[in-house]
């Protein structure tokens, strides 16, 4: 996939569904919260995301909160696009997510549908089977505390400060 001409400079708008695919790929291939958090800069104030086993994420802050929880549980999470297809004013992205929980690898496939308004991401619906993640947490006692402190799932909780990637300092 050809790189966007403004590589190195983060855009202020999503120019097209193809542009979003490039930005999404770069963010998730990096394997860290900071890269994924940059995507929140491109979300519409009325952004709404729906994903299994979690409450809707609303607005840029909702997107940041959701991914802070995910990266609190799996700080090394990476994604690789398997397939991507554009439609009218949106895109479907199938991504293989890979990370570790309690020192053991875990991967799953997610299919995300995004749509745009005025150059910003207006919404996302994520389709994936959360069973592998739930089984990994349930069968790895070392993961229980980290899962609880991540704030993922119900009941909704704040991310524990010691795990919150938004509070991490660069070493």
Question: Any descriptors?
Answer:
6-stranded mixed sheet; 32% strand; 171 residues; alpha+beta; 5 helices
List the helices and strands and how they pair.
Layout: H1 17-30, H2 33-37, E1 43-50, E2 57-58, H3 59-73, E3 78-87, E4 90-101, E5 104-117, E6 120-127, H4 131-138, H5 141-150
Parallel strand pairs: 1-6
Antiparallel strand pairs: 1-2, 3-4, 4-5, 5-6
Helix pairs in contact: 3-5
Number of helices: 5
The radius of gyration is 16 Å
Please state the structural category.
Answer: alpha+beta
Give the helices and strands as they follow along the chain: HHEEHEEEEHH
Annotation, overall tally of beta strands: 6
Walkthrough of the structure:
The chain has 171 residues and is an alpha+beta fold. The protein contains 5 helices and 6 strands; from the N terminus they run ααββαββββαα. Strand 1 and strand 2 form a beta hairpin. Helix 3 packs antiparallel against helix 5. It is globular, with a radius of gyration of 16 Å.
Summary of the model, kept short:
The chain has 171 residues and is of the alpha+beta class. The protein has helices at 17-30, 33-37, 59-73, 131-138, 141-150, and strands at residues 43-50, 57-58, 78-87, 90-101, 104-117, 120-127.
